[in-house]
Structures are given as structure tokens and as C-alpha cells.
Design brief:
By secondary structure, this protein is an all-alpha fold. The protein has 13 helices and no strands. The protein has one domain: MFS general substrate transporter like domains (Growth Hormone, Chain: A, Up-down Bundle). It is globular and about 50 Å long. This is Multidrug resistance protein MdtL.
Length: 382
């Protein structure tokens, strides 16, 4: 049930993906504005990650999760009534706040409830809950957009019900306090982990960062690539592509769960590199099928990087630092995931969709390759 809280918020995080093209046509804004709207989500998430993990480790999971779900509900209502760019930015910002809460406190709660003997299995469940929700959101929105002339309100009405069930779960779960409130000298600080765990976080970020940047690009600009470059305008295809990307991220984690963390990381880095090659080929050949394959590979890269990172945290980071470690991992992933697509959106407005997407793919492939080399040099068969 703790995993459902994570899934519910991630359904919201990507529900807007198939609807951006509609909002872009109705309101009228550029690719740079579109990526700025997406970046407001990253900003909300990063600001939340600075404090949510440490507050959760100190005061418990529930007191942090409840405000996070409240932010998600407000974001849902803003999306339902959005008729301007500022409303979309506010909705995306608050959904980022909610995601920041669940990737730190929510995913730590999943591992807490798994117990000391099932840390690796609990890390798998937490990771799958995230990518499953991320995939269901665009599928629901894309299906409703295909079936209805005005799908926005029905989409977020469904999501509101999902979020309310997650709020009930937070209230009834036996979430144990994991902190040390008696420490009178405590004060808020930048997220950190014990020095002995720095290596584990660096390795996780080296692979998870490029992977989630690849999926962020597909979410932010994939629908524009489909419609403007490849001539595919169906919202179901755009939503289905995003859903398939995250369902692939789910499936590869099940397939890789018995592998060593080193092998998981190397497979993740390879998948991200191949994904960027696929995006370059799709743009050059105007082939939608190749773009969809590239999206699936991007999902594999994120899923494997995330699984490896969370597994190292679950196995090696003490419980009273676990939420903070989750925050550090996600900050390391979401900083490039926010900056690179925004830069690409600006490049697209200046140089065109084809050149901007190709430059993004080449840069990220190089970064993913460096991440793979970092794993080869610094991690044995953990």
C-alpha cells in the first residue's frame, strides 16, 4: 500500500504529457515555453528534495507525505482548469513538489515497511511503483484525449480520485518514526549521506542521471517530435509512447532483479546510449517507429539506473539516512533532466527541431558513456 502512494503521485506527474500539444495550440506558446513549463516541475521537485528527505528522517514519513499529497491535489485542480501558461507552470511546480516528497519520504517508507530482511526486494517495489505510475498517467490521458473532445477535466477528475485513495493509505499505514527529535542541535541543511556512502550515491547518479534525462526529453518534446517532425498527431500515440517507455522501465527491473548491481548499471548506461542513437536516426529518417523504440530504450536506461541506485541505498545506507539518500540520488538525476531539455527547447526554437534534438542526443550519449566508464572503474560485483 505504501507503494501505491508513490504510484498515485507519479500518475499525476505525467498525466499532462499527451495534453501539452492541445494546450500549446489553444494557448499559443513556443517549444522553449513548453520546456520551461516542464522545468517548473523540476524546480519544484529539486527545492522539495532539499528538505523533504531530512524532515522525513527526523520527524517521520507521515508528517511529510500528507503535505505532499495536498500539493498534488491542488496541482490536479489547477491542471483541470488551466487556461494560461502561468496556471500550467503553477500546476507543474506543485506536482514537482509532490514528486519530491514521494521519491524521498514515500520510497523510504516502502523500504521501511519491507523490513531488514527484504531490503533488495523493497527497493525493487519502490522503483517499480515510480515508473509504473509514470507510465499509467500518459496512458489514461491519451486514451481520454482520443475518446473525448474535451479530455482535460475528465483526466484530472480520475487523477483526483487516485490521489484521494493515496491520502487514505497515508493515514492508515503503520508508518514508523525514524528520527532523532531529541537532537536539539539539529537544523535544516543540504541533503547529505554518511561519507562511507558517497561512492554508492555517485555511482547511482552516474547512470540514473542520464537515464532520467533521456525520459524527460521524451516527455517534454516527444509529442512535438511526433506531431511537427513526423506528422503523427494522435494523443493516444503520444501518451502510449510515454506509457510504453515507463512500462519497459518496469519490465526490465523485473528481468534484472537477480543481476549484480554492476551489471544492472552497465546495461542501463548502454540502453541510454542506444536510445540517443535511436532519436538521432528517427529525426534523420522521419520514422515514428524508430522514435518509439528509442523511447523504450530510454525507459530501460532510467529503470535500470534507478534500480541500481535504490538497491545500493537500500543495502548500504542506514535507515535514519535513507530518505535523505533518496533525495540526493534524485537531485543528481533531476538537475540534468531539467536543464538539458530546457536548453534543447531553446536550441530548437533557434536552430530547428531536427538539429536541436540531434545535438541533445549526441551530448547525452557522451554523458551516459562516461557514467558507464565510472561504473567499470569503481564498482565490483556488488
Amino acid at each position: 500500500m505504501a507503494a501505491w502512494i508513490v504510484t498515485a503521485v507519479f500518475v499525476l506527474s505525467n498525466s499532462a504529457t499527451p495534453l501539452y500539444v492541445r494546450w500549446q495550440d489553444a494557448i499559443g506558446f513556443s517549444s522553449a515555453t513548453l520546456t520551461a513549463i516542464f522545468a517548473s516541475y523540476i524546480l519544484g521537485l529539486l527545492l522539495t528534495l532539499l528538505v523533504a528527505g531530512q524532515l522525513s528522517d527526523r520527524y517521520g514519513r507521515r508528517p511529510v507525505l500528507i503535505p505532499g499529497l495536498a500539493a498534488a491535489i491542488v496541482a490536479c485542480l489547477l491542471f483541470a482548469g488551466a487556461h494560461s501558461v502561468p496556471m500550467l507552470i503553477a500546476a507543474r511546480f506543485l506536482s514537482g513538489v509532490a514528486v519530491g516528497v514521494v521519491v524521498s519520504a514515500g520510497m523510504a517508507a516502502v523500504v521501511d515497511l519491507g523490513g531488514p530482511d527484504r531490503k533488495r526486494q523493497a527497493a525493487l517495489v519502490a522503483s517499480i511503483a515510480m515508473v509504473l505510475g509514470a507510465g499509467l498517467g500518459p496512458l489514461i490521458a491519451g486514451s481520454l484525449a482520443l475518446a473525448m473532445e474535451r479530455p482535460v477535466v475528465p483526466t484530472f477528475a480520475v487523477e483526483l480520485v487516485v490521489l484521494l485513495t493515496a491520502l487514505v493509505a497515508v493515514l492508515i499505514l503503520p508508518l514508523k518514526h525514524r528520527g532523532a527529535r531529541t537532537d536539539a542541535g539539529w537544523h535544516p541543511h543540504l541533503p547529505a549521506v554518511p561519507r562511507a556512502n558517497h561512492r554508492h550515491l555517485h555511482l547511482g547518479i552516474a547512470v540514473f542521471g542520464p537515464g532520467i534525462t533521456a525520459t524527460s526529453f521524451v516527455l517534454a518534446l516527444g509529442p512535438s517530435l511526433l506531431s511537427r517532425l513526423l506528422g503523427v498527431t494522435s494523443p493516444l500515440i503520444a501518451g502510449g509512447m510515454a506509457c510504453a517507455m515507463f512500462l519497459t522501465a518496469t519490465g526490465v527491473q523485473f528481468a534484472a532483479r537477480q543481476l549484480s548491481v554492476r551489471t544492472i548499471f552497465l546495461c542501463g548506461a548502454t540502453a541510454t546510449i542506444l536510445s540517443m542513437g535511436g532519436i538521432t536516426l528517427a529525426v534523420a529518417s522521419s520514422n515514428a517507429a524508430v522514435l518509439i523504440v528509442a523511447a523504450l530504450l530510454a525507459g530501460s536506461g532510467q529503470g535500470l539506473g534507478q534500480l541500481g541506485g535504490l538497491t545500493l541505498i537500500g543495502l548500504h545506507v542506514p535507515g535514519n539516512h535513507r530518505a535523505e539518500a533518496n533525495a540526493v540520488l534524485n537531485i543528481g538525476g533531476y538537475v540534468p533532466a531539467g536543464l538539458m531539455p530546457v536548453g534543447t527547447g531553446i536550441a530548437i526554437d533557434q536552430a530547428g527541431l531536427s538539429l536541436g534534438a540531434t545535438l541533445f542526443a549526441a551530448a547525452l550519449a557522451c554523458i551516459a558513456g562516461l557514467g558507464g566508464l565510472t561504473v567499470i572503474r569503481n564498482l565490483g560485483t556488488d
